[in-house]
Amino acid sequence: MPNTHTIDRLLTTNCLIVDARADLPVMLEAFSLRPVDYLPVLEGCRFVGLLFRSRVEALQASGGGLRMDAATLASPDVPVLHPGDPLSEARELFRATELDALPVVDQEGDLVGLLHREALEEATQALWKKARTT
Predict the structure, then answer these.
(1) In whole angstroms, what is the distance from residue 121 CA to residue 56 CA?
(2) Which residues touch 60 (CB under 8 Å, ≥6 apart)?
(3) 129: pLDDT confidence band, cut at 50, 70 and 90?
(4) Domain assignment present for 80
């Protein structure tokens, strides 16, 4: 499959996010809205990191964290993609992580959307199928 295919058309751009200043009750409410393991944390439009449900719930269970904000709890060391990245690069990043979605950021670090593993797999299979029939 040629490397000319990029991830641009595969992005989910209507994403639930958490503001970097969100406190524990807001974080818990955000996770109550969707059955996801993590959410992107943004400061304005800039991607800060991923906030993991397990970390927020552990903090709640310990009775602490009322003064912690989402930026403090977010994991900043998350692999990111860029809109023009080839599908092959996205496949390599997904092989190296257990995440089901990766953040896609522009040159300024602003979140553009999320690339879901399932969307990438479907697009890759469709391209392979098309290549075999032509």
Answers:
(1) 30
(2) 24, 28
(3) confident
(4) yes
CA-to-CA distance for 57 and 73, rounded, in angstroms?
A: 11
Query: Could you tell me the CATH number of the domain that includes residue 28?
Result: 3.10.580.10
Q: Per the structure, how many domains does the chain have?
A: 1
User: Is residue 49 classed as helix, strand or coil in its secondary structure?
Assistant: strand
Neighbours of 122 (CB within 10 A): 12
pLDDT at 2 over 50: no
Element housing 66 (H / E)? none
Q: pTM of the predicted model, to two decimals?
A: 0.88
Structural Rg of the chain based on CA atoms? 17
Range of the domain at 118: 8-133
DSSP letter at 13 equals -
Tell me, yes or no, whether 2 lies in a domain.
no
